[in-house]
Write a structure and sequence with these properties.
Largest sheet of chain B: 2 strands, parallel
CATH architecture of one domain in chain A: 7 Propeller
Structural class of chain A: alpha+beta
Shape of chain B: flat
Number of strands of chain A: 30
Oligomer: heterodimer
Strand order of the largest sheet of chain A: 14-15-16-17-30
Radius of gyration of chain B: 57 Å
Largest sheet of chain A: 5 strands, antiparallel
CATH class of one domain in chain A: Mainly Beta
CATH topology of one domain in chain A: Methylamine Dehydrogenase, Chain H
Radius of gyration of chain A: 27 Å
Strand order of the largest sheet of chain B: 1-5
Helix content of chain B: 55-70%
Number of strands of chain B: 5
Distance between the termini of chain B: 137 Å
Shape of chain A: globular
Largest interface: A-B, 107 and 110 residues
Number of helices of chain A: 6
Strand content of chain A: 35-45%
Helix content of chain A: 10-25%
Amino acid sequence: MRVKVLSRNPDDYVRETKLDLQRVPRNYDPALHPFEVAREYVRALNATKLERVFAKPFLSSLDGHRDGVNCMAKHPKSLSTVLSGACDGEVKIWNLTKRQCIRTIQAHEGFVRGMCARFCGTSFFTVGDDKTVKQWKMESPEYGEEEEPIHTILGKTVYTGIDHHWKEPVFATCGHQVDIWDEQRTSPKCSLTWGFDSISSVKFNPIETYLLGSCASDRNIVLYDMRKSTPLKKVILNMRTNTLCWNPMEAFIFTAANEDYNLYTFDMRFLESPVMVHMDHVSAVLDVDYSPTGKEFVSASFDKSIRIFPVDKGHSREVYHTKRMQHVITVKWTSDNKYILCGSDEMNIRLWKANASEKLGVLAPREKAAMNYNQKLKEKFQFHPQIRRIAQHRHLPKSIYCQIKEQRIMREARRRKELNRRKHSKPGSVPLVPERKKHIVAVVK
Amino acid sequence: MATHTSQGRALRPRERARRDTRRRFAAVPACGAMAEEEDPAAAAAAAGSGSDSEEGEDGERRHRQLLEAISALSGRKRRKLAERSEASGQVSEFNVTCKGAGEKLVLSELLQPIHPKSTLGSVRKELARVKRRAAVELPLSKEEAKRVVREAAYVTTSKDVGRWQQVVQQNRRAEQLVFPLRQDIATVTPLERATSAWKARTPLEQEIFGLLHKTQQPITDPLLTAEEVASVQAMSLEEARCRRAELQKARAVQSYYEAKARRAKRIKSKKYHRVLKKSRRRQALKEFEQLHKSDPEAALARLEELEQLRMQERMSLKHQNKGKWARSRAIMAKYDLEARKAMQEQLARNKELMQKVRVELPEEREEPCEVPQGDTPALPTPTGANPWMLGKPSGPAPEPEAQEGPRDDTVPGAVENKDEMEEEEKEELSEEEALLQDFEQKRRERNPQRHSEEHGADETEASAEQPRDSPVPPTCAEELGDSPVSPACAEKLGDNPVSPACAEELVSPGPELPPQAQEQLLLSEQLHRVQTMEDVENLAKEEPVEEQEKLVAPRAGKRAWQQEEGRAGDRQTEKTAAKRKIISLEAVLDGNPQEMDCPSLPVVLEEEEGGMEQRGVITEAFAGDDVVADFRREKRKAEEATKPQPLNLVLPGWGEWGGSGLKPSARKVKRFLIKAPPAPPRKDRHLPHVILSEKRNIHAAAHQVSELPFPFERHQQFEQSMRTPVGPTWNTQRAFQKLTAPRVITRSGHIIQPISAEDVPDTAPGGGARLGGEAMPRRKAELKRKVVGGKAEPRGKAIGGKAVPKGKAVPKGKAEPKGKAVPGRKAVGGKPVPGEKAQPQHRRAR
């Protein structure tokens, strides 16, 4: 009789060295792995829960200013360096890896209104309430040298903002008008005006570098062309725009932070209505900065919180706040797309993770694969009620929560009223105005 | 005279300078540049005339000085007199120049007519033009002009910016974006540049720097001192020559050996070869003995070599009487003594080779010759954990020469053969050796494991068997078949007809909300903080009702009504309202159950006055259709289907004979058939003309998607997207990686610069220039269409779909909302199934 003995070739299951991964023979026959949707759903649910559990976005607070932080600037060449200007005229340069202030300059009398770094990262400019524009070296003075600006330009009026050209030695200031300066000269190359108003901020387009955008206190946003030294177009909104920021990946898109609690993303070619209205803040939005990937932006508000919006969504995906953080005046997204910095009234600069539950540090390949898988699962099952519920849950301080509720009621009432009015009046006499058009007063050519 | 002239010449530059200055004074307000241009001309004139009127010039100069002094006194600019200082080629002695004096007259010039053009012609033309024009256009106002400029500038600028349209679209749609877009290679600044830029400033730095410089350490690229460079450069000629000669010699010797080997190989005599082999073997033994005496260490090494040989033998089939020769001998063995002998010899040899040589401990090294005999044959030993390893390996059998190889080098009689043999076999040997070593190594590595596993060998085998033998128990498999996830079921769900009322509700959640308001909030913000895993769990468990209450009013109202009915009896006030409804329904239904018997009763009631002939027509038309009976049958079937099935645990063959065609005994069936507990009473038990499906699982519903999410246009799409798993359990490694590739990749520590024209070389903004303006609106239109389609879809479906199953509507129950008959879903198990169902929750039957 022939006896068949179970025998296997060890080459099939024994690994060659100890360091090899154990070979796991796998049969992908779907009949052997049933309930795939249900199992993946459970995994997605767990991933979502874990994401919420690990969402600890706050990293550190940089304290040292003796007055509210009024403006910040990123170093164009170094990720670990950030500059900040305070309301008492003090400028500080921080090292983010050490979380230390590495240099302090008494730059101005009164506020430091604006600051920007030169594109090469060797120097930076500040403007202050003392009507001066100062250029400083980025490096700290050598042994035995005095802390002095490289250049100081004394102007006639107060400058409220400054931005540097992305490629050329040219910078722009704003105040009573938008001035474009050559770095070598003490008088502006050209001054751009359109009516008389105080302009609060001016920004160069990072892609088409000759373009400028500014927002003025008479509720308008003006675009300029530096080549022709002429303004291009003006949009008047319902309320004042505080700042604007250009999308670093899409040349014609910019986002404006408005006093009416909203942010408006415009396409500069079609200014008649914004591409998207971003609502969620419950107080004036004071600052906005794009992520370097151009997919999201972060906004700082007077309501003591910062929010992260996807560019193509009307509502925020994330809100950050702490008990001690007061009105946030300035916010920046670091150029490696990892962190967010915000400077607030109570003299602190806070460092946040841009992705709240992200694990910092080097990830092992398996960790990375697991992370990607979890991300994909969350994305896949995002429409399921339980998962959405967990993913969307955020804690808010009472003041903001109440205000949100209040505003929801107000909005609902307004909507109802309009509806009633439409119902009881001649058809067509109360037109249906889309939300995007509501906030635009006019476009001036 | 000579002095005079020299003085005059010397003065001339000065005078010129003065003249220049004067002229500049006059001309600066108008055109400074012109004056400067004139200077050289003036100088030339001075030079030209200077030679003739030197003595007169002195006086002239004085006169001019005087004039200047006077003009300076008055302080007012005088009108300058005409001055003759132009350059001219011919200067007559009378100080009169005549143009063209030196030139010759040409006849053709004389023949030309005198200017025929009258100067008045142009004037007349001008006059006519002025007359024709009524008035000159007013120039644009400053504001207007600026506006025109702005508009023009805006158009050109937006066109410029529009060149990015294509790139932007591409990036928005991209499956994956890797930032920074341009991967620049990190450049390391050379040491010399880094050091040259740096200067020692503080005293400490200076001190250190001084010390370093004293030793004159090189800092430039080849970090060699002078001596080192010299030594590297020097390589003696002699040495080179020696080496070359050596190489030449080696090559020559090699070729001799090769020739010799070829010759020896051609010898066909078997006897010669046999003798050769034997002598080799003997020699080897002898040598080994000698070696053992003289150098035990080397002997040990040899022994190991023998061991190697043995292993080779074990792996080969050479001496196992399996070869062609052996088989032929076996046939011959019966008759031929010599053949038998040869076979036995070979077998003995095989045995000998197969015997394990024990590697002795150092103190036992004295009798290595006895070792092979003393050892038991390795084949039957059960010590090896893996019986498989004791069999013949599956690896390729080595060449017959293989076993001879190592022994060859010891043959003294065939010293000349030695090299050639080596030469020939080296290649094969090297291959085989590599193979062998590979095997050996594997085995060695396996050894530690084997030792550890030895005891549990059986268990491991058993466990290894398990996954193969028992994938899924049959009962379980059956369950799987019924599982709610099955695609058939999903299809069924997708095809479910929607009653029109529900569909309408689905489509219009509220009286037209503005688009922004309709958009879902991305965050649900709360006052309490979720801190632990338990909290998150709780978050999930919270009643979905609460969330849905926030939805639009009409829906909420309906839900509320349903809830009230569900827990009727809680509150008095609500109860009355709800109960009244129930009571009324029951009263109606219980009152006339026998109505079922006469199916056309309602029709009769309606058409009493309609006319008998019509009724006759209808009955004639539907003569074959017994609608009511059909319905009753269907309901019975539904009831049967929902009845709990008894659980059959009968296994054939246990406790009795098994085999094909045998049935388990009745006793056994009775024993192992487990009756299911009776199902709760059906809700439609008192509703004779309604089928209420109770297949909808409320617990599962909380996890299901109730509305079709935005980017999807049909239920099928969404279900499809849910059905394809992405995990590594269902996908191969590669597919898994592809499926879970992130949308945006950023590298930590890398600065992401704004996009620039260099980042997009192929789709340069120049290429997309014509797309610019119109591309955007088109996209918008697309988007709009998409949205409209997405919204319209459910409505269209609702209209198209069957409102009531199979058209067998209820004759009476139309009035009540409860009576909406809902198509049953097939096989929805008790398990909560996520996804798959993007159906409105309203559709469920209460």
